[in-house]
Amino acid sequence: MDKNRKHPQSKKIHYLTWIFLAVIFLFGLNKLYKEITMPPPIVYIVPNDFIGPVFVFFGQKDGITPSADILGRSVLIPKNGVIKIKQDVGDVIAKQEDGKQNMYWVEISKSGIRKKLILNDNTQQEKNGDFYENYYDENGLPHKYPVIEKNHPFYYFSESQRKEKMIFGHEGCQHQFLEKNTESTEKPPACAKFLVISPNQFLTMPRWMWNGINHPYSSISEFEETANERVLMKENFYQSE
Predict the structure, then answer these.
(1) What is the pTM of this model?
(2) pLDDT at 101
(3) Phi, psi angle pair for 91, to nearest 5°
(4) Would strands 103-108 and 114-116 be described as parallel, antiparallel, or unpaired?
(5) Are 220 and 191 in contact (CB under 8 A)?
(6) Mean pLDDT (whole number) for 163-178
(7) Per residue in 48-58, pLDDT tens?
(8) Cα(239)–Cα(241) distance, rounded to whole angstroms?
């Protein structure tokens, strides 16, 4: 018997090993490709004197291009809270993957000091039917608490946290959709919204600030007009507090 001849079982193991290594290589290559082509995180820069709703419209010819930022690419929230971005939403916001943030909210002071903000998520429901509150801290880590109606609405935050600005209601603009012109073939623009406010202020904010704008608009221009009106209304309301 030829001692140099490989046993069939040995050949099979050798063959399977190469297949395994090839799969790992292709998996790593695919992951690297996604890393290279994936948009960097979008960073919403919140001036420390800003409070109120923010609406982000994507794919706008007169929009801005996000600027380079240490965390990704950033846009500054203007006084009226309306941001128009030139790029399409898929070119700006990466798909959410486990362990990676695709967006940040950063408060900035007049002296340039930055602070990441908490995202207070909407009430969610478990598969078993139970409801829970959750938020994502400054590092993007989730915190989950059962809904307890007898407690303070924001019982899961400390007294000091309830006074701090954070992000509420981050979602699409289904309640403020732009009515499609019957003569136009264009789709309504992709839009995202969120609210910048502290938990304590959330409980006392006027209806026109957030819930009162839940209705259709004929154009972004019309929406901007109402947003500009809200700037003065906010100033008057919070000066009188």
Answers:
(1) 0.80
(2) 84
(3) -90, -10
(4) antiparallel
(5) no
(6) 85
(7) 999 999 999 99
(8) 6
DSSP string for residues in 6-74: PPHHHHHHHHHHHHHHHHHHHHHHHHHHHHHHSPPPEEEEEETT--EEEEEE-S-TT-B-PEEETTEEE
Q: Tokens 């009106």 label which residue?
A: 229
Q: Give the strands of the sheet with 67-69, arranged side by side.
A: 67-69, 72-76, 42-47, 103-108, 114-116
What is the total residue count of the chain?
A: 241
The whole-angstrom separation of Cα 227 and Cα 213 is: 10
Cα 86 from chain centroid (whole Å): 18
The mean pLDDT of 199-214, rounded to a whole number, is 92
d(CA 54, CA 209): 11
| Cβ atoms within 10 Å of 223's Cβ, excluding its own | 21
Average pLDDT rounded to a whole number, residues 213-236: 89
C-alpha span between 92 and 86 (Å, rounded) = 10
